[in-house]
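[audit] Reproducing an earlier prediction to check determinism. Same input, same settings, fresh worker. If the tokens differ from the archived copy the diff job will pick it up downstream; this log only records the rerun itself.
[audit] input (84 residues):
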Amino acid sequence: MLANKDLEKALSYFVDNSKEMFRYNFELMRIFCHCRSRNGETVMVGVQDGVAEYEMIAVQEGMQCSFYIKFVKDEEGIWRIYFF
């Protein structure tokens, strides 16, 4: 979604109470970040009590980076991004 510049669609995957924070962060990234990344491996760290944790490995400007992603199951049973 972000690759297609569809911020609103991307934000639909986040829990409601964090959307505005991520909207702000995505806008900052759009303005200041000119790096390209290649998505690499995504590994499940664990799932417990409606929370799933993943680690995503990516390469940015030739350096390998690790990103933490946390999903929560909302009241409708849909997994949504809580934090990354």
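[audit] rerun output stored. Observation attached for the diff report: The beta strands are 37-48, 51-60, 63-73, 79-83.
[audit] end
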